[in-house]
Design brief:
mainly beta; 0% helix; single chain; seven-stranded mixed sheet; four-stranded antiparallel sheet; 11 strands
Length: 122
């Protein structure tokens, strides 16, 4: 089993930045692909970004490309999502998750954190 805990969410103004963290414990974190997802009220959970276990491959949803950066530190079992130029439509609960292969579908992920709220005010 792997446990994931997100942190770093909060309230920020339009154009601001936040850095989300995802701390992993339990089984080996480095063997997994890490993804970030978000879910706004009344909407389905949507893919945001993914990174492979070596950190050499990343992919982003079009809505965040150029503004968000995903990264991970295998040594301290932590993943990150740097979010810049935030917009009101970025408001959602953000989740990190682990999968065994590169995928953008939430149903393919094996482990999930509890989520952290990000609110962007205009």
């Amino acid at each position: 089993q792997v446990q994931l805990v997100e942190s770093g969410g909060g309230l920020v103004q339009v154009g601001g930045s936040l850095r989300l963290s995802c701390a992993a414990s339990g089984r080996t974190f480095s063997n997994y692909v890490m993804g970030w997802f978000r879910q706004a009220p009344g909407k389905e959970r949507e893919f945001v970004a993914v990174i492979n276990w070596t950190g050499t491959y990343t992919y982003y949803a079009d809505s965040v490309k150029g503004r968000f950066t995903i990264s991970r530190n295998i040594a301290n079992n932590t993943g990150y999502l740097q979010m810049n130029s935030l917009k009101p439509e970025d408001t959602a609960i953000y989740y990190c998750a682990l999968a065994q292969y590169i995928t953008y579908a939430p149903t393919d992920y094996d482990y999930w954190g509890q989520g952290t709220q990000v609110t962007v005010s205009s």
